[in-house]
């Protein structure tokens, strides 16, 4: 399922946030959306998910405009994890993940829905909190629960806004390793992420946003010193170990 973004423009109260965004994303791509704060990363994800409607342009799935998808189909197509989920009604972790099966549940919950829920809980290593109230968890634990709920939707396209926020280093790596495996199962995965080092290690493609426009896009070849220094207005050193690239900001002093 190919995702095509054509000349998408979006404004908040007349203030342009996205400006003529055009990009083609193939099935199974693991895409990092990077750029400074306010560059439009979160807004682009919300437009792709259909939460926001572009003021101009279109977003297509295999040439079909997502605005024409009904709600159940959209929920089976897109899984979205916001950076902050806010307060939720009291529910156990298990029930919260099971909610991801809602687009598939008819009159009753099937054994298959329970099996998928349990499998995803195991994969995200949250079995030990499965019966706890989501609202009593730490920020990092809640983040993993909402990622699990999105995966339970078995989406064609997974969208995550800062999925490693509030996670310690170990769980950041676990989440990105999981998302990498997910993308290799032909689930297109897009993450808005600030950490260039993590993005470079796990993602296969990159979209650099600057002031609401695509500054550059492509594979690791776009992660150049010139691009990064222009994008963030800083100096960086770049190191490479095997296939891994690392970026270290340079102190101007």
The percent range for strand residues is 25-35%
Any idea of the CATH topology? Rossmann fold
Which sequence of strands runs across the widest sheet? 6-7-8-3-9-10
**Integer average pLDDT:** 92
What general form does the structure show? globular
CATH class: Alpha Beta
Taking the sheet with the most strands, its summary is: 6 strands, mixed
Give the count of structural domains: 1
CATH homologous superfamily descriptor: P-loop containing nucleotide triphosphate hydrolases
Protein described:
The chain has 253 residues and is an alpha/beta fold. It has a single domain (3-85, 153-249), classed as P-loop containing nucleotide triphosphate hydrolases (Rossmann fold, 3-Layer(aba) Sandwich). The protein is 32% helix and 28% strand. The protein is built from 8 helices and 12 strands. The strands form 3 sheets. Strands 6-7-8-3-9-10 form a 6-stranded mixed beta sheet, with helices on both faces. Strands 2-1-4-5 form a 4-stranded antiparallel beta sheet, with helices on one face. The protein has a two-stranded antiparallel sheet with strand order 11-12. A hairpin with a 2-residue loop joins strand 4 and strand 5. Helix 4 (111-123) crosses helix 5 (139-152). It is globular, with a radius of gyration of 18 Å. 37% of the residues are buried.
Task: List the keywords.
4-stranded antiparallel sheet, Rossmann fold, single chain, 8 helices, alpha/beta, 253 residues
